[in-house]
Amino acid sequence: MIDCAVDTQSLQAFIEVAETRSFSKAGERLHLSQPAISKRIAVLEEQLGAALFDRVGRQVALTDAGRTLLPYARSALQDMEDGRRALSHLSGRVGGRLSIGTSHHIGLHRLPPVLRAFTGQYPEVDLDIHFMDSEDACEAVVQGKLELGIVTLPTQAIPQLETRLVWPDPLAVVVMPGHPLLKLKKPRLADLAAHPAVLPDEQTYTHRIVKEALQAHGVQPRIRLATNYLETLKMLVAIGLGWSVLPRSMLDDTIAPLPIPELAMRRDLGVVWHERRTLSVSARALLAQLRES
Fold it and tell me: Within this chain, do residues 144 and 180 fall inside the same structural domain, yes or no?
């Protein structure tokens, strides 16, 4: 049981340092200076009467006391957040802070009209938007750090995570205009393997979708570069560094789709939330807005 005198800001600083193993990185996450983080940790250690971190040079590691405290600190912050969300239902007011995570691609290509309509209808909501990989956003929702994730949906179910499809996102094999593969009357999968590829990073859901589709036909791509930013991949394709697989919504005159009928790929874009945590009135309002989109 955590003493009621311990403030939530100190607990948040403690959790971030524990996860990043760095006072400076924790400060970056919380938009605080390193001295401010150090002060919060010092106050917490004084209140609890125990050292929480061993500091050897630049190395930071949890002490036994720190490891013992960590799950309780996470639970305390999550309970406080659940309480805040539950209280929002009493007033029925759509307002306050709403923390969401989304990918750069969705933030650029899908969210603007949704958020424009949402903020116009609910001006009292303070949107706290974090741009990150979809995989990281899903993990942050599971951990209770974010209320919603608007992401590429996981290819396999994640425990405690509810998902809802919002936008089906068909994918296409793409090359630069004038690429040798475009000169073939009927390009085959084997032809792809003969040319270098630039693909999404292997840790991403999109990479898994592409990899599984290619492996189903026995194709092993020759990957020249990998990145988790689709806009960067589009640029790399446009300058001729390789073929790739991108959303059809990104097609324009700088890249060209390569017709390979047997490669029918799609990813699902949507929203995720924690199945056992209370959603705030603001989160429910955004879910309704996404459903309408």
Answer: no
The rounded distance, in Å, linking the Cα atoms of 146 and 130 is 9
Interatomic CA distance for residues 105 and 46, integer angstroms: 44
> Where in the sequence is the domain holding 48, given as residue range(s)?
8-81
Question: What is the residue-averaged pLDDT of the chain?
Answer: 90
Question: 175 and 94, same structural domain?
Answer: no
Model pLDDT for residues 56-70, shown as the tens digit of each residue? 777 889 999 999 999
Average pLDDT for 256-268: 91
- Is the separation of the CB atoms in 129 and 102 below 8 Å? yes
Q: What does each C-alpha distance from 139 to 127, 136, 167 come to in angstroms?
A: 19, 5, 21
Task: Please state whether the predicted TM-score (pTM) of the whole model is above 0.90.
Answer: no
60 and 114 together in one domain: no
Q: Is 180 exposed, middle or buried (0-12, 13-18, 19+ CB in 10 A)?
A: exposed
Residue 243 φ/ψ, nearest 5 degrees: -85, 165
Token output for 102: 């989304």
pLDDT of residue 5: 47
